[in-house]
Write a structure and sequence with these properties.
Elements (H helix, E strand, L loop, with lengths): L2 E6 L7 H17 L1 E6 L1 H4 L6 H17 L7 E5 L4 H11 L4 H5 L2 H9 L6 H4 L1 H10 L5 E2 L6 H18 L8 E2 L33 H9 L16 H13 L2 H12 L5 H27 L2 H30 L5
The structure holds adenosine monophosphate.
Length: 330
């Protein structure tokens, strides 16, 4: 079975954009691929998170992904720092990673500009750690967003470089995962422009209670309404309809589209309906988050099983890489 590897950020909460976008794909992928999904806690160290919050953050994200549909019976769900083989491969790949090319990556330049006081070597070599995450399982596919494409290309370069340097075929070149030609779902924010995101401050979280969801939706940016029948929709209104398309029934969408077209739309009514439909969609997930996050025994069983599976897969690749480099047992 072909392998898929994907990292999950280790802080924050899952929002509707993650749920309707990446997570739905993960849930589908785990049916047909050998999937390795990991919580990227080592990556988060670049920003020096407080040790007191570290474990709780991982636990929250783990609970939310489980509640939202990842099935540990079908995929390996693990914590990155539980798999030391990743760090060993990181050391080997660092020897093939050149300073100049790392400095030219868009994410490094962006982060270095935003945090000039903390340009550490871990930040510079972030793409090397990411390449290790992927190559250590010899992944066939990585589901990547636009912002991660450059990192995936770097992983491909290191795979090639390692194989060429040592005259071996240890690493496959991982490819970007796409579901057919379907363009990925993009959930817009409620603030009128751009996509929903944690750092954009415009997100509805799966753990938000229903009063909070209603309040956020009622505050969504709108305009003064259509001035003539069948007029084109401005982006802010299109965004509301895009979310409605993803969470409401086709009848509901048709009803409000007609109201837009004949200029009788009342945004208050539309938002009320949208809020109800978001609450209905997220309610079962919210309930599962509560149940899963308080079940310590279940969480530790999931993490242990994920660790075992991930380490077995990683150890096989690392053994071949160590051989290639020239390490031998005494
Ligand atoms: P992030 O929350 O930025 O760590 O993203 C985790 C995953 O969710 C990535 O695969 C993103 O592409 C995806 N994602 C984040 N925000 C959205 C959004 N608004 N709509 C669709 N997918 C999203």
């Amino acid at each position: 079975m072909e392998k898929v590897v994907s990292g999950i950020r280790s802080t924050g909460h899952l929002h509707l954009g993650n749920y309707l976008g990446a997570l739905r794909n993960f849930v589908k992928m785990q049916e047909g691929y050998d999937c390795y999904f990991f919580i990227a806690d080592l990556h988060s160290l670049t920003t020096h998170p407080h040790p007191a919050d570290f474990h709780a953050n991982v636990k929250i994200i783990l609970s939310e992904y489980l509640a939202a549909g990842l099935d540990p019976e079908k995929c390996a769900l693990f914590v990155q720092s539980d798999v030391p083989e990743i760090c060993e491969l990181y050391v080997l790949l660092n020897m093939l990673a050149y300073k100049g090319e790392l400095e030219r990556t868009a994410s490094f330049k962006d982060k270095a500009r935003k945090n000039p006081d903390n340009i550490n070597a871990g930040l510079l070599t972030y793409p090397v750690l990411m390449a290790s995450d992927i190559l250590v399982h010899n992944a066939d596919y990585v589901p990547v967003g636009k912002d991660q494409e450059q990192h995936l290309e770097i992983a491909r370069v290191y795979a090639r470089r390692f194989n060429n340097l040592y005259g071996v075929e240890v690493f496959k070149e991982p490819r970007s995962f796409n579901f057919g030609n379907q363009s990925p779902v993009k959930v817009p924010g409620l603030d009128g422009s751009g996509k929903m995101g944690k750092s954009e401050g415009n997100a509805i979280y799966l753990c938000d209670d229903e009063a909070t969801i209603r309040k956020k939706v009622m505050k969504a940016v709108t305009d003064s309404g259509p001035s003539e029948p069948n007029s084109p929709m401005p982006e802010v209104i299109q965004n509301l309809f895009t979310i409605m398309n993803l969470v409401s029934s086709p009848d509901t969408v048709s009803y409000f589209t007609e109201k837009w077209n004949d200029c009788s739309i009342r945004y208050g009514d539309m938002k009320k309906q949208l809020a109800e439909d978001i609450c209905t969609l997220t309610r079962p997930v919210r309930e599962r988050i509560e149940a899963v996050s308080s079940d310590e025994a279940y969480l530790s069983k999931v993490v242990a099983a994920g660790r075992e599976k991930a380490r077995a897969s990683a150890a096989a690749t690392l053994k071949a890489a160590r051989q290639a480099v020239g390490f031998r047992n005494f």
